[in-house]
Amino acid sequence: CSSDLGAGLSRDELTLGLIVSRRLIEDYMAFRRARANGRDSGTTTSFLTDTIALLQQNEGWVEGHPALLARLPPSVRGEVEADWQTICADQRVHVTALQAALEVDVSRDRFRLILPMIETGRPLDPVQEALSRNWQELQTFDHRCDVSAVAKALAWRNYLLISMLAAFPLRASHWRAMTYRSAGRSLLLNSGGHLRHVGGQDWALYLPAREFKNSNNADIFGPKKDKDLKFLLKDAVTLAPLMPLLDHYMRVHRPTLCDGDGPVFPDNQGHALGKRDLYRIVRSWSRKFLAEHGNRQYGLRLTGVRAFGPDRKSTRLNSSHRT
Questions:
Q1: Quick check: helix, strand or coil at residue 101?
Q2: Closest CA to 175 of 185, 161, 163
Q3: Residue 219, Cβ neighbours under 10 Å: how many?
Q4: DSSP class of residue 319?
Q5: What is the C-alpha to C-alpha distance for residues 301 and 249, in angstroms, rounded to an integer?
Q6: What is the pTM of this model?
Q7: Nearest Cα to 264, choosing from 284, 283, 286, 242?
């Protein structure tokens, strides 16, 4: 951000409005290409997709904030000479053309196999619809007498895990390592597990700041000494609807997999999930409920969508090249 690095802009000049600059967009693309040994990558595709969405007429956040024009640094103001909506419209056309001209190395494109979902502008909508279909199947599955208690517990674990992944964007490592301790009944103590049953009534999350990669970022966590993230799940808009399901899972099904203190989402041996385990769960779920060749009864079978899951080498989304 300093004057001798990047685009030579000061911290105060950094706003999302900078995406109206053709020069900055193209410079960033060149930077990404240089890092990828001269090739376009899925990261660039994703960046341009997000840029176009931010510039969308009547919908994009940047397009809807014309006050950003006055905050552009002189070096960028000199590039644009029109009203804000026109500037955004022109840039949207330009960025769309840049994206169409990309020659992405498929082996580096993490988003290729879910691109039909991304291009809708609301990629989580089909995920929520798929979860609704998963719930329908789960109700039938739950009442079958020929299914073991362990199989039912695993089905509930997968459904709740995917639902919470979609509702609350923590890193994959958080979900794998998430713990529950029966003695954890308060958010005032820094010990007691991640998932806590406060007062024996309300479910809550306590996430230590040290477990976040960017915990030193005061803009996100604030300057205060106590930076740990802690809240009642009923107060989180996206998680509140899941509370009855979480309560049922913790009372009825989790004890089948791990009775007592331990991981919230254990494997069938009661141990914490590994990277490969979480990848397999999400990939299997996406193949069944979202992929083009998914389950004929419950799957959405979206054209062009293939199975995907968290990258086994990191926590980023990765698409498999095999169905």
A1: coil
A2: 161
A3: 7
A4: E
A5: 28
A6: 0.65
A7: 242
Record the tokens describing residue 29, joined without a space.
């693309």
198 forms beta bridges with 202
Residue for token pair 């279909």: 133
CA distance 127 to 291: 11
Asked if residues 164 and 157 have their Cβ atoms less than 8 Å apart, the reply is no
End-to-end CA distance of the chain: 43
| C-alpha–C-alpha distance, residues 135 and 252, integer Å | 17
Amino acid at 38: G
pLDDT, tens only, 266-304: 999 999 998 889 989 999 999 999 999 999 999 999 998
Residues 19, 61: Cα–Cα separation, whole Å: 12
Q: How many CA atoms does the CB half-sphere of 275 hold within 13 Å?
A: 10
* DSSP notation for 188-239: SSS-SBSEEEETTTEEEEEE-GGGSTTTT-HHHH-SSS---EEEEGGGSTTT
